[in-house]
Amino acid sequence: MATRSETTLAERKRQLVAEELRNAALMLLATRGFDAVTVDDIVATAGMSRRTFFRYFASKEDVVVRFLADMGTDVVTELAARPENEPTSVALRRAIWRPLSGCADQPNHAERIRIVVRLILDTPALHARWLERQIQWRSGLAAELAARHGLDPSAHPYPQMAAGMAMLALDAVLQQWRPGDDEHRLAELTDQAFAVVAPALDAGADQR
Amino acid sequence: MATRSETTLAERKRQLVAEELRNAALMLLATRGFDAVTVDDIVATAGMSRRTFFRYFASKEDVVVRFLADMGTDVVTELAARPENEPTSVALRRAIWRPLSGCADQPNHAERIRIVVRLILDTPALHARWLERQIQWRSGLAAELAARHGLDPSAHPYPQMAAGMAMLALDAVLQQWRPGDDEHRLAELTDQAFAVVAPALDAGADQR
DNA sequence: CTATCGATGACACCCAGTGTCAAGCAATGC
DNA sequence: GCATTGCTTGACACTGGGTGTCATCGATAG
Questions:
Q1: Is the pLDDT of residue A63 over 80?
Q2: Which residues in chain A touch residue B135, judged by CB atoms under 8 angstroms apart?
Q3: Bigger pLDDT: A70 or A7?
Q4: What SS3 state is found at A181?
Q5: Which of residues 139-198 of A touch B (CB under 8 A)?
Q6: I want to staple A163 with a disulfide (CB 3.0 to 4.6 A). Which of A86, A141, A199, B23 is the partner?
Q7: Poorest-confidence range of A29-33, B1-5, B10-14?
Q8: Contact B101, B78 (CB under 8 A)
């Protein structure tokens, strides 16, 4: 009975509702600021009930942060796909570049993402949630790095810290992302950030 | 009319109330877990009104996080006190060591702090606030580092990232802090963590 | 046509956090 | 002794985020 492509009609309906909610939320939050918008405002704009909102999103923060959630999974899977013999700094740089390159493809979408990034970085409550997410990604990266180097993650600080340094680099790029920056500029920022941490990434890999 | 040592009686009374509240809160939170304790539980234990609690602490998270707030300021002031010619990795290691050494002085106090650290790391909401604090410290450290190297903090990613690496090291130490670890063990963990990031800290300092 | 299942909205809660106001209480001035 | 001033407190009401529950509605399966 699957109407098409393995996704139920109900499934697609759910997705549609979530998108509607998310659009309304992002529009309001980006224009008025996080604290000045209540969930009631959002559901009023989207034309749904308050309860429905919380069936799709765990919290007001969640709407915003989950908009960038793919970033994290992309990074981890990309790292797993990098060749074994690649230096750690290069592999991590490619991994971090993955979601960024996706952003930079279409200027429309990129600008949308940039605004959300700004909103997150400028709103303490959102920033905190964002960091919480990053911690999860970091653990994923760390596990992958530990496997790469044949290290026991609980005994050596290297994997966790190397993953942390990659996150620092990502943060540095996002922090310096300015309106109108094209793909080339983003790549430049990424390279600069990784130039700082590369010595630690590649030095710590072997000696332990 | 100053009774003694420049502190008013009212001042000391305030401090006493805050301490009472904090003790009640930490005791309950550490035993039952963060979400299982309401502010009403805390004020009932401390024998005060709900409103009074929020006059002393901005939020339930605040009670816990502020218990460790001195850490951040200690780190920044210690970095500022390090000699100019000291390598960045050493200066930052000493700075991070400062609050840790303070902890390790009395085993009683150290254990109390360790329990709070565990509570924070294991509670997502607290962990998020903790990271938020760290970001403020990081900015302080970054400013100090920028001054040290004569860099413009807005143009170069190095100061922010170097400060971030110091925070990563601190996190690594706290994460691996086990019950009964003495000062020597903590110093060992700190050295291990800084051994990982040192190459990046000292390499990036000059070349820009 | 009917049973069923998932999505929805309405409603009642709980809890964190804030604004406001009146009462208590110390220190000071007359 | 008495009034004043300033600070702290508790009581109360209110906003807003988040959850549990239940009746309803619509689509689908039999």
A1: yes
A2: 127, 131
A3: A70
A4: coil
A5: 157-158, 160-162, 164-165, 168-169, 171-172, 175-176, 192-193, 195-198
A6: A141
A7: B1-5
A8: no
